[in-house]
Amino acid sequence: MKVNVYWMILRTRFRASYRIGGYGWKHRNMSMKQAPSNSPSGTTTTSAWDLSPAEFDFRSDTLTTPTRSMLAALESINLGDEVYSECTTTQSLESRIASLLGKSSALFVLSGTMGNQLALRSLLVQPPHSILLDSRSHVQLYEAGGIASLSQAVTVPVVPSNGKYLQLEDVQKHAILGSDIHFAPTRVVSLENTIGGVIMPVEEVRRIGEWARGEGIKVHLDGARLWNACSVPEPSAELLGEYSKHVDSVSVCFSKSLGAPVGSCIAGDERMIANARRMRKAVGGGIRQAGVLTAMARVAVEEVFFGGKLSQANAFAKILAEKWAALGGGFTLPVDTNMLLLDLEGRGIDDEIWKGAIEEGGVIIWGDRIVCHYQNSPSAVERAKKVMEIACKAADERRRAGGPKKECGRREKKAGERTYGQSN
What residues form the membrane-spanning segments (predicted)? Predict the structure, then answer.
């Protein structure tokens, strides 16, 4: 009976339509091809297991969906209770991730947000304490204030001096050391790789890690897209371990670009992971038959990362970057992996033009950000290139006609209004 419930949950997950805001949403169903699947009645139906509904969706790599090989993995899972540490499927995944990251222990969690928050809480002892981090980081902006509520910590957001990623000099300048009672001392430095699609070099992580260790400061790495950073030009397990050995804890995500339905892992030493396991239970993250999820995550790691499919996503981004540059467009950040942040305003493209181009092109894009993933197709990339052409042509025609210039790349917002996944 319980297995049937899981099947119902999974079916609901994959049949749900996307209701998140973003330009081009109405093209989603129009864009999907028909994938053959034999039903009991002998008719042909569309199956999301065979063809991802995210093929023409460039909003985020979180929209990747599980594959038929992930579904097939469920036939051989262990249905032990993971809260009681009886799920061998989950234990196998955790051991694999710990080994890849060069850590003694790892823990499966339900989301990247949960992983980051549990890791940070487990590295801290008691207030007063502060966490130094990139001002654009996910843990600072997009995790519902979890640092304040779960860790009672002050954050020290730092704008990278190079505009791309934190350097040791940034950390040293803003870290709070000493015993002055007016300040909350820095106890953790939280890094993110990739951030905005930009790769933080392993040498910079090493420099920060070595300095922090000398000052008694812990380092956490939000590696939700570390898989992408370690897939340039090809997947490298060695590079995964190299990044991880310079930090005390690291999180990696299975449900972003890897396409698993749910979950992340955090890795660290045994004491840190034991603390995280207890805190996971406290926030409702204990999972019974977790093997239903971790079997799919394991397939995602082996087939998508080690199968080189993230290199394909990175290649799609490079193709689009070359097209945008050829059309005279610029970028607000370098295109190192699978993400493009377009300077729409610099190209004279306003919200009306961009929205119209996306609708006409038949893809889904969020604002000025384009995120490629391995379930996009060459056809989808061609459509995205067409969007760029349409928008640039319209902007050029308006400029020649002397038309009014409007706010570029985004709809009008109230002061202080924020939208997840888009530049503000």
Answer: none
